[in-house]
Structure to design on (166 residues):
């Protein structure tokens, strides 16, 4: 039975088997949470990303986590939708990010995983709606993952995720 927790903090400090990053299609790293994870994991993460990229929106692919400490085993790179007003299928792409990240986690035997609030930063996806999609998708996707941590970087996101869990 999977447990889902909401925490406020920096995802690079999470002690889990896999950390999900909100990447861009190149998987070469960028700003936001992707930048933080790439800085913490070291330059080998971008090299590994280049070898498995590009990654389409809604897809997910894993690489080792290299220098992340605590010693996370994998980084799962997923590409969220750029918000275009809500009528361009953004919700389905975001749901796919969470679903396919769990599928990749299952392929790797991951038992604990941390997600950021995918697409709610640079990509502009409204945080409250994104939180509802994240929780609904994670709850409805069969998985062997036992522990899911939703890591908010700000209190508003945390509150949206908590509300979505209730
Ligand atoms: N830990 C957890 N969450 C974080 C961290 C961190 N260290 N840093 C930022 N965040 C949060 C942001 O506050 C936001 O809520 O991650 C969420 C996602 O925001 P972005 O990182 O901007 O990701 P996204 O909106 O999906 O845009 C992806 O931005 O960084 C580039 O390369 C990335 O082009 C891609 C785009």
């Amino acid at each position: 039975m999977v447990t889902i927790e909401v925490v406020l903090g920096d995802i690079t400090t999470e002690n889990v088997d896999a950390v999900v990053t909100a990447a861009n299609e190149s998987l070469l790293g960028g700003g936001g949470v992707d930048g933080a994870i790439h800085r913490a994991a070291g330059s080998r993460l971008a090299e590994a990303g280049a070898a498995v990229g590009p990654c389409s929106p809604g897809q997910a692919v894993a690489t080792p986590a290299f220098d992340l400490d605590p010693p996370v085993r994998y980084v799962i790179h997923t590409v969220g939708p750029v918000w275009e007003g809500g009528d361009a299928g953004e919700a389905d792409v975001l749901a796919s990010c969470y679903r396919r990240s769990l599928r990749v986690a299952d392929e790797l035997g991951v038992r604990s995983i941390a997600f950021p609030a995918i697409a709610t930063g640079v990509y502009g996806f409204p945080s409250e709606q994104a939180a509802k999609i994240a929780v609904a998708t994670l709850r409805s996707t069969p998985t062997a993952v036992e522990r899911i941590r939703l890591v908010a970087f700000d209190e508003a996101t945390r509150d949206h995720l908590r509300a979505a869990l209730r």
Remarks:
- The longest strand covers residues 3-8.
- The chain has a mean pLDDT of 98.
- The pocket of adenosine-5-diphosphoribose is lined by residues 10-12, 22-24, 30-36, 80, 116-123, 151, 153-154, 157 (CB under 6 Å).
- The helical segments are 32-41, 44-52, 90-107, 127-140, 155-165.
